[in-house]
From TrEMBL:
This is SusD/RagB family nutrient-binding outer membrane lipoprotein. InterPro entries: SusD-like_2, TPR-like_helical_dom_sf. Pfam families: SusD-like_2. Keywords: Lipoprotein. The lineage of its organism: Bacteria, Pseudomonadati, Bacteroidota, Flavobacteriia, Flavobacteriales.
Amino acid sequence: MKTIQYITAVLCSLVFVGCSDFSDSINTDPNKPGVASGTQLIANAALFLPDLSSSPRGEFMAQYLAETQYVGASLYPQESTSFYYWYEEPLMNLQAAIESDDLDASEGPIANQLAMARILKAYFFWNVTDRWGDVPYSKALQGADNFTAAYDTQESIYNDLFNELKEAVEMIEPEKVDNDIIYGGDMSQWQKLANTIRLLMALRLSEVAPARAMEEFKAAHADGVFASNGDNLVFHHLADANNQNYWYNEVVNRNREWWALTETLVAEMKPADDPRLPVYGDPARASGEYTGLKFGEEEDISTEKYSLMGPAIYAQDASIYLVTYAQVLFALAEAAERGWISGDIEALYNQAIEASIAQWTGSTQGVGEFLAKPGIAFEPANALKMIATQRWVHLYMFGYEAWAEWRRTGYPDNLVEPNGVAVPGRLSYPDNEAFNNTENYEEAVQRQFGGDDSIHEKVWWDVD
């Protein structure tokens, strides 16, 4: 920098003109604009979507993967988990877009840009509150104006998110928006996404507020939800180091065979020759058979003996499934079972499994035979258990979402308690909150859990 300043001074002394403009130009990178557009802010926030799914901790919570190297990480230790990442990155970008006075209409209708930002913001916040419980919400994202935001109750957050999603849909115009890396600017897809998120959020309230849950569920369904796998919210990684799958970096670049399919997952899928199993994992190298590792097993662990993640899961350009048509069908089957809507429960259940298999394998060949197999064929007397268990199979690798559904329904009902430690009910707040946001942190912990910020406490909607 001193060299640049010296050269600038010499040139100024020689020509006597344009010194200020010249200095500004040589210190400005034309490839790094100082101000991001609204669509750029939204696209940048969307880049964080796969992080909602791609997490060893999330897979441990749903018991999809068992740790082969550092088993202690999967034994549910009492530890804090930071939520700052979500606030500082995607949520702050989305808030900046929502509050901007400089959105560019040449990139698409302003209303559509705002709607996209509000839908994504609601989706991120839904994930955050379902993991921690009460979190900073209405007073958050104010930057230097408020570094110590109060915690909103999860109930009030849910109520506001329902409204945000409905209002976002109502403001959408037909014209496309530029730089949309999710749906290519197709606003009808964004409308269906918002309604589908509402539908799944409503189902989450089935045990704590069933009347409200049914009301919101039926309204979201009537407004139009996903109708095919083509509607899915999917993040497509690239075969490029700048936008690659988290698991590719771990498994291929770092050569880590740290995770095997769990005994619970393989035991659910192998007896029925589930066509998704060859996608989910590989046969064990030692035996050539699909073999799951007991979750939390600490002795005699050899990666040769157990099924590891399949290449499609850790591929550099793997797709990450976040909100899916199969989830909608499972939700509709459950809603019909609960009497919220009319519908053929068995048909919806079968359609959900078919959509899941098509999503994961790209084919529905042999689905009819699979649906007739013992343990898969629908049993009306065990409707909720079967729906929830097959939803768990479908949600493979989105462990946090599967964990939320397990907390709500209790299924599958054979998850392991390693060393007698139960599956957690939530994530503990960041340690820093106790020091940097003391009053609000303590009030939230006291209000929800009687003062104990434990992973074994429960969030508002988890009443079982």
